[in-house]
Every structure is written in structure tokens, then in C-alpha cells.
Amino acid sequence: MTLPQEIDLNGVRVYQGALDRYAQVSLLEDVRAILRAAPLVRHVTPSGKPMSVRMSAAGDFGWVTDRSGYRYQRHHPSGTPWPPIPASLLILWNKYSKSDRAPECCLVNWYAPDAKMGLHQDNDEADLAQPVLSISLGDDARFRVGGTERSDPTRSIWLSSGDIAVLGGAGRLAYHGVDKLRAGSSSLMPNGGRINLTLRVVT
DNA sequence: AAGTTGCA
DNA sequence: AAGC
């Protein structure tokens, strides 16, 4: 990666090379601290299918799913409150989100090398005028982005460690997902895999 | 192989 | 169904 570059996919803005190696290492340490307080969980969808992506969160709310459905809640499934969102992430939110509100949730999504996430919309938040900011760490991931209807055509882009994507404006309700990882493509995590951090305003 | 659609 |  040379200079940071901005790409638009159906209203989703992707800033390639936004974070240098030092910032990535530092964020990874922050994530490790979150996961010590709030361990990764394998959620099931409302139909009872386990997701391949393991999840945790920081902030006032975390997103969870089980047979009762999708929702934000104030506690880890173990019953403990989520740890605070690290200051490093609040700074990135201020730099990239163009929002006048503070994020209330930082989802931590862990992708093992064979994990994926199907095409979906983020629409469990109360104020859809507020953007969602996504940070990639670790292995490259093929990120697929469609339109606001499931049947809309999709395009894909490979996200690398240190890339930032913003789902805002026209892209806020774009269908999106992760098809596959390029296992072992990043030296950030020696054992492979990917971490995606998403900052959101929930209420 | 990749991109859509249908499912309950 | 954020899965198959």
C-alpha cells in the first residue's frame, strides 16, 4: 500500500491504507483488552444456525442474536457490562464518521480463516442517519456491497489490514457481507484470521 | 466461479 | 437467515 486512497462502492466509502502498522498494532492491543473483559461468543441466528463469525463488543451496547432475534443489549451474554470503547477508536470515529454524536457500540467481529458473513443490512439502530464505521485488522477479506434491496447487483473489494470503511448516507442501508478471507495474508496476526471493528450509534 | 434467489 |  502506498498512499491512502478513497473508493466509493454504492455509497460505502472505503479508505484504503488509513492506518499505518503502528496504529494497527496499537488497536490490536486495545482489542485484546476488550476480549479479556468480554470474551468472544458464537451467536446463533433466529433460526438457530450458528454464525461462523465470533463476536464481542465494547461501549454502552453490544449487538447480539439468538432464537429471540437480533438486538442491542447492555450486557455480554455472561451478564457483565461491556467494557468502555478505547480512546483510540473514539479518535478514529471523530476523524472519519462526520457524526456529531458519540458511538455507543464497538462490535468486535472475529473471523477465523474460514469464516464469512452473508449479505445483510445493518438496520437494528434507531437513527439510520448515523453512520457505521468499520476497521479491518489482519487477513484480507473480500467485502461485497450491494444496494438497498437484496436483489440489487453487488460489487466486491478486497479489504486489507488498516483499511477503514464508512457506511453512511446512501450507503448506510447497503447490503454488505464478507465472502471469504485470504488466509495468512497479513503478518499482524501470526496465526491468521481477521478482526473487524464497527462503531455505531445505537439509540 | 461468482452472483442471485428462495427458504420457513 | 448476519445461513444455507
Write the layout of secondary structure elements.
Layout lengths: L4 E5 L2 E5 L4 H17 L16 E6 L2 E5 L2 E5 L13 H10 L8 E7 L5 E4 L11 E7 L1 E6 L9 E5 L4 E4 L8 E7 L11 E7 L3
Antiparallel strand pairs: 1-2, 2-11, 3-6, 4-5, 6-13, 7-12, 8-11, 8-13, 9-10, 9-12
The chain binds two DNA strands through strand 7.
Care to describe what's here?
The chain is mostly beta strands and 203 residues long. The protein has a single domain, classed as Alpha-ketoglutarate-dependent dioxygenase AlkB-like (Jelly Rolls), CATH 2.60.120. Helix content is 13%, strand content 36%. The protein contains two helices and 13 strands; from the N terminus they run E-E-H-E-E-E-H-E-E-E-E-E-E-E-E. The strands form three sheets. A seven-stranded antiparallel beta sheet has the order 1-2-11-8-13-6-3, covered by helices on one side. Strand 1 and strand 2 form a beta hairpin. It is globular and about 45 Å long. The N and C termini lie far apart (37 Å). The mean pLDDT is 95. The protein binds two DNA strands through residues 43, 45-47, 49-53, 63, 65, 70, 116-122, 144, 150-151, 153-154, 156, 177, 179. Its cofactor is Fe(2+). GO terms for molecular function: dioxygenase activity.
Task: Briefly summarize what is shown.
The protein has 203 residues and is mainly β.
